[in-house]
Amino acid sequence: MNLDLPRRELDRYKSASQRARVGTEAWGAANFFCPSCDSPKLDSAPRGAAAIDYLCPRCAQCFQLKSQSRPFGSRIVDSAYSEMLRAILASRTPNLYVMHYDLAAWSVRTIILIPHFAFAPSAIERRRPLAPTARRAGWVGCNILLSQIPADARIPIVDAGSARPAAAVRADFQRLRPLENLEAEARGWTLDVLNAVRSLGKQEFSLSELCGREDALAKLHPANHNVRPKIRQQLQILRDMGLLEFLSPGRYRLG
Fold this sequence. Notes:
Blueprint: H1 16-31, E1 43-44, E2 54-55, E3 62-68, E4 75-80, H2 81-89, E5 95-102, E6 107-114, E7 124-126, E8 141-145, E9 155-159, E10 162-163, H3 166-176, H4 184-199, E11 204-206, H5 207-211, H6 214-220, H7 227-240, E12 244-248, E13 251-254
Parallel strand pairs: 3-5
Antiparallel strand pairs: 1-2, 2-3, 4-8, 5-6, 6-9, 7-8, 9-10, 11-13, 12-13
Helix pairs in contact: 4-7
């Protein structure tokens, strides 16, 4: 994987943001592979395809690229809030590549992949409506909250200027693949509980420790008034998926 961004034919773009968009998208077309199957390349999506930049020619998975010259923070600016929420609940979100590039060196520094089945409503933050004086007055956008996406689902492709093997990326993707079979609402609970487990910062943990996150989970799911039983249910689902290991009554280990 060549981490240098392309420079050819970028001089015709006057805007730095245009040059960055064209350069990063061209880099993706030349270097991205499909994490879902064994395709070594992705095709650029037809011009005008909404929220889709690449398509896998073998398995038809859809991908979107968001790139920035700043290191990743806790939020990634995304599209309309209502559209993103509907896409999550209808399981229509594309797989998302998030790229940080070095503007001075014009090279890729970091890329993470968030699988399409790893988005929960809790990971989407509603932004304030645009001011009445704005061209799109009242429009409401959203942010993707990286901290609300479990670390398992932030799959590194390039880390600090070093590319990971495709086999390792595909193994990480397939490990999470059972999430794809869950209904969107149930998947949201599973992802939120997995994120709560990760927030403990421990390889082994107890049910009582995880229940210390009960209030936070209740805020994410205010319509559910039986949070503790739901936590137990999700631990069983995560265990069946192989993401957790049952050690003894009330004790677990991350898989």
